[in-house]
Amino acid sequence: MLLVFSMFLGWYLVSKVCQIRRVNYLGNKTSINFWIYSFGILLFLSILCQGLYTLAYGGYLGIIEYSSLIRSGLFEEIPGNKFSFLKPFAGISMIASYGFFGLIISQHTRKIIIIGFFAAFIFSLYLLYTWLGRMGFLLYLFTFIFGFVLSKTTSLIKLLTLGALCFVLCLFSAYAVSNILSLKSSSSIISFIAREISFPFASFISQLENNNHLDRFLIDFIFTPIYLLPSSWWSSWFTQVGEINTEVIMGAAKGVDGVTGAIPVDILTLGLMQGHFPGVIITGIIFGILLRYLQFKVFSVNILGLRYMLEAYLILKISLFSLFYAQPNMVIIGNFPLIASVLLCSFFLFAKERVKFL
């Protein structure tokens, strides 16, 4: 109750400042061309970054052999790979595919847009397979579905109904993908759901009973910007909240004493660890402010289809996913492709206006 109330409080604290403005969602030829070129450049940069990063592993196909070992923590990144920092940049192809699809559902169906979408979509599927992230793979696919649904209906009842169906379908899909990729597979769908949904409750109760890590005093929020830097630069600076949570529940950190998995931190446990119940309130306020600001920025996009895709991304990847995986490093790293894409597109827009001015 404290968390929900504080989220609404944070939302309304900035509602007067970040007021939604009406914009022309039709766009013009110049605007459409700008987005086509921007998404095309994002796709090219994504392919280039992945190619440079995988040189140490034998190229685009060679990385597949190592990917599962890297993700499990049983195999570290190859020492001396000077392009390891490019790995997260490859994810901008997913944002490019969202963008091309947004243009398509806005009735812009030129051949270059169709080709761009399929190229970005196929490369993104390959990329997600090398990353071996179950929920990332499913959220990527469901974002297209939800973005399309948003473009076809404004009925809240229909959206909630379809959202509930998507959630159930997502659980069954996660179970199937887990068994296919042999990632945390289960003998039955019941045991899978019980395990996947129970960890927020287990984390909260374990931290409350342990009572030794409830005084981090917002350090996890203060250090959030450093997660934009390569992990080798900051991983030894301080103990992350997720590492502490894993040690409390599993008895050791990931990669130590046979522990191959990590216990993620949900938003309630994250708030509790910042300063007990006052920490929960502060965390809720921060989350509410973040959601309101992001909604304000999404609604300022001038192509309706792009707005729907970004809105779907905001709902699924940030609003929903961050409730269960709220530790700042996971939020930043998980949304790094979006952050990088926004910065790049902002640079493209600045360059476009600068050239026009000259």
UniProtKB/TrEMBL annotation:
Domain of life: Bacteria
Keywords: Membrane, Transmembrane, Transmembrane helix
Keyword tRNA processing: no
Residue intervals passing through the bilayer: 35-64, 85-106, 112-129, 136-153, 159-181, 275-294, 306-326, 332-351
Signal peptide span: none
Protein name: Uncharacterized protein
Organism phylogeny: Bacteria, Pseudomonadati, Pseudomonadota, Gammaproteobacteria, Oceanospirillales
